Amino acid sequence: MMMHLITLKDWPRERIEEVLDLAREMKKDPMKFQDTMHHKTLVMIFEKPSLRTRVSFETGMCQMGGHAIFYDMSTSPLGAGKETIHDTVKTLGRYVDLIMARLFEHEKIEEMARFSEIPVINGLTDFSHPCQILADLLTIQEHKGSLKGCTVAYLGDSRNNVTHSLLYGCAKLGIHIRIGCPEGEGYNPLPQVVRDALAVGKQTGASVRVTHDPWEAVEGADVIYTDSWMSYHVPREELEDRVKALTPFQVDAEKMERGAPDAIFMNCLPALRGYEQTGDVIDGPHSVVFDQAENRLHAQKAIMVILLRKA
User: Fold this and answer.
1) pLDDT score of 49
2) Is residue 132 annotated as part of the catalytic site, yes or no?
3) Backbone angles phi, psi at 44, to 5 degrees
4) Which CATH number describes the domain made up of 8-129+296-309?
């Protein structure tokens, strides 16, 4: 059966750890892997705009001796509704070795994986962002050592791809996770994802908590994480209401002080200073946001290698 990376819910702990181990090795000695993707081609399908996803995947293939093709859905038969996902991925499977897609609807990436005869990687959907969280886990591991027993606090809008993937990834690796978000369905993670994480946490020792008190969330946390209040799919006219609801969950110096003395600050970027975090936090000594950004490169190189090994 073809292996894909669609959501971390589908991946066992051992496979996540395999990616992290290989990513650390590749980061330490990239020249060892300079020919790993020789004569291999990745096609990158983009429906959503991107900086880190496109550049890190394309650079990763280049560094390993492979090639990457950028495919813009806005100018394609697929994007125009003139070709089905089935026909698109069946055709691509005759040309390339890997598909990475950055899309809005999660159902589309699931459909790609269902019909594809080559590995499919979720570069982001509205529901899930597994590549980002694998890079995040690598970053936490670098700064904290052991992952098991670590505490991650996530503050802000929590009905999004990053929160959902954090819940899956942390629970599987025995990391305690607290979600601090405003009350209301629109700001809370999907209930089924929380239930899934709770069930996994019972097996790994990870605690999972959703709270509407930001101070409770960050108390003693090893990692304090936030993300954009205005993701790509959020209408601009909602800005005022969202700022009002989310401002109590802004990561500022006081909240960082409530974390562990050596707490690190994370944001997967892009970031707006003065919104989800203050400038003194993201630009301060606890911030590891550019380590996170770099680790997208190393984690994704490992993902691609492992998927092709098992194809």
Assistant:
1) 87
2) yes
3) -115, 110
4) 3.40.50.1370
The CATH code belonging to domain 132-292 is 3.40.50.1370
Q: Give the active site residue among 106, 129, 242, 286.
A: 129
Distance between CA atoms of residues 308 and 311, nearest Å? 5
Total residues found in the chain within this entry? 311
- Parallel, antiparallel, or unpaired: how do β-strands 208-211 and 98-102 relate? unpaired
Q: What is the mean pLDDT of residues 191-201?
A: 98
Active site residue 29: no
Out of 131, 150, 181, 268, pick the active-site residue: 268
102 labelled catalytic: yes
DSSP state of 219: T
Active site residue 250: no
- Tens of pLDDT, residue by residue over 82-99, are 899 999 999 999 999 999
Determine which one of 97, 136, 222, 227 is catalytic: 227
- Please, where in the chain does CATH 3.40.50.1370 lie? 8-129+296-309, 132-292
Which is nearest to 264 in space by CA: 246, 245, 301, 289?
289
Check 4, 52, 97, 102 and give the catalytic one: 102
